[in-house]
Design brief:
Blueprint: H1 2-13, E1 21-23, E2 29-31, E3 33-34, H2 45-54, H3 67-86, E4 94-101, H4 102-117, E5 123-127, H5 136-141, E6 144-148, E7 150-152, E8 157-160, H6 162-172, E9 176-182, H7 194-203, E10 207-211, E11 235-239, E12 249-255, H8 256-259, E13 272-275, E14 280-282, H9 297-313, H10 315-334, E15 339-341, E16 355-360, H11 365-376, E17 378-379, E18 381-383, H12 388-399, H13 406-415, E19 419-423, H14 430-445, H15 447-452, E20 454-456, E21 462-464, H16 477-487
Parallel strand pairs: 3-17, 5-6, 5-9, 9-10, 10-11
Antiparallel strand pairs: 1-2, 4-12, 7-8, 11-12, 13-14, 15-16, 16-19, 18-19, 20-21
Length: 490
């Protein structure tokens, strides 16, 4: 375990961009505190090193007749093995394949395939907590999608309501194709009991599809449960850009039988054994049959490098380290007057991972996020995080304590719908949490000052009246190319 923590320290200190400095509205230049990892994590230096060392040998895959192709084919095959190993999926039962635009592409592929594979099961059950990527694909491909609410925990909304889930499964019975559930909420960081859900869904012949976009970087995933197969997961989907890799190679881990004996949703080169002028014969081999076209080789290698590095540390070690950071964030923010924390704030009653969302009472979420950036160099995210129904419900829950008129409640809920989200990666420290708390405390105590210094735009964003950030002074693709061409030897 000591070795794991030493590896973690080395990985964390080598995150690319961790030491970036910006000049603030005060004129001071400070190091950025990056608290937007739920949107996209910073890359790890070890990932860049793996890609740097691979680049001289880069070649397309699916050939072993020249050296570069042989190397690329071997490493690309290994990336699939690494994915299965990382999520503890039995390679005899599961396959892993890469898709385009992150988790979104993966869940769309899963929804289309399972609708075709199990046509008599035309209902999907999901939760109100879901990112749009784990909601809209099911709505598009299935005639009925049931949204199960979150339960009330000690003081606020917590994880998925297991009682209501059981009722939905009982009501729709053999019509339920699968239950699609996030492992960790991208809004609150609340952890769902995915293995309990799997066991319950399997009793009704339903599958479980886990959106692990927010889970993979923070918690261990056990896809196969040999001791209790009912608690195994059927499909797991996640993305590289949320687990320290560049770009967004999406990954689908699925039982092979769910995709077998169907024509793949995407066809083209690489997924066929033979093609004639009037017919083609698709391959039965996984993952080739699900990866038509030239693959994102560098994206897959970068992701696999990250997964292997994290595996060397141990995801249990990472979960333990991050739990302390999340619990400290909740505690520190809860101590500040006029700060609202969304979702159950008792971390013992309702575990969290990776994120905490909040608002300063009386301030627009966009103003709070702008002030955190401009005056304190703290990068957070605001608005609804592509989870509109969940955010709307939690904002309404807080407002209902203060507003009795239902029409006024609805108006205010729409007007103020949004939050500020602080989210974490392995590179964040307790000192980062303390800086966030200190900054939020200052903003909450000096609302008038910040309101006076910003103008609200039609977009809903807030722009400082006198301070302006000029991105092109730091980086421009065009300037970079011009400079290289002007200064390189012919």
């Amino acid at each position: 375990m000591t070795g794991g923590r030493e590896h973690l320290k080395k990985l964390a200190s080598g995150a690319v961009g961790l030491d970036v400095e910006y000049t603030l509205a005060t004129g001071e230049k400070t190091r950025r505190v990056y608290l937007d990892s739920t949107a996209s994590t910073l890359r790890l230096e070890v990932v860049d090193e793996a890609l740097r060392r691979y680049q001289p040998y880069y070649s397309n895959t699916h050939s072993v007749l020249h050296f570069g192709a042989k190397l690329s084919t071997q490493e690309y095959r290994w990336t699939h093995d690494m994915v299965l190993d990382f999520v503890h999926a039995d390679p005899a039962v599961y396959t892993a394949f890469f898709v385009g635009s992150g988790t979104t592409a993966g869940i769309n592929r899963v929804a289309r395939t399972l609708r075709e594979k199990r046509p008599d099961r035309d209902v999907v059950i999901t939760s109100i907590m879901e990112h749009h990527s784990n909601d809209l694909p099911h709505r598009k491909h299935f005639p009925e999608v049931v949204h199960v609410p979150a339960e009330m925990a000690q003081t606020s909304i917590g994880r998925i309501d297991m009682g209501r889930l059981a009722e939905a499964l009982e009501e729709h019975g053999e019509r339920v194709n699968y239950v699609a559930l996030t492992g960790v909420s991208n809004v609150t960081g609340i952890i769902n009991p995915i293995y309990e859900v799997a066991e319950l869904a399997h009793k009704y012949g339903a599958l479980i599809v886990v959106d692990a976009a927010q889970m993979a970087a923070h918690l261990p995933i056990h896809t196969t449960n040999a001791a209790d197969p009912a608690r195994s997961l059927d499909v797991v989907v996640f993305s590289g850009h949320k687990i320290y890799a560049p770009g967004s190679p999406g990954v689908v881990v699925t039982r092979k039988d769910l995709f077998a004996e169907l024509e793949p949703q995407e066809v083209g080169g690489g997924m066929v054994d033979d093609v004639h002028i009037n017919r083609y014969l698709m391959t039965s081999e996984f993952p080739d049959r699900e990866e038509a076209g030239t693959p994102n080789i560098c994206g897959a290698i970068g992701l696999a490098a990250s997964l292997y590095a994290l595996q060397r540390v141990g995801m249990e070690t990472i979960a333990d380290e991050e739990r302390e950071i999340v619990e400290r964030t909740v505690k520190k923010l809860a101590e500040i007057d006029d700060v609202i924390i969304y979702g159950e704030s008792d971390c013992k009653a309702c575990e969290r991972a990776g994120a905490v969302s909040f608002n300063v009472r009386g301030l627009d979420h966009a103003l709070t996020a702008a002030a955190l950036n401009d005056y304190f160099n703290i990068s957070t995210r605001n608005e609804c995080f592509c989870a509109h129904p969940y955010v709307r419900e939690m904002v309404t829950e807080v407002l209902a304590e203060e507003v009795e008129d239902e029409d006024e409640l609805e108006r205010l809920a729409e007007l103020h719908r949004g939050m500020v989200r602080a989210s974490f990666g392995i590179y964040n420290t307790l000192a980062d949490v303390d800086k966030l708390a200190e900054a939020v405390r200052h903003i909450a105590a000096n609302k008038a000052f910040y309101e006076e210094n910003y103008e609200r735009q039609k977009s809903g964003d807030y722009i400082h009246k006198t301070f302006e950030f000029e991105p092109a002074r730091l980086f421009s693709v065009r300037d970079t190319v011009d400079h290289w061409l002007s200064n390189s030897r012919a």
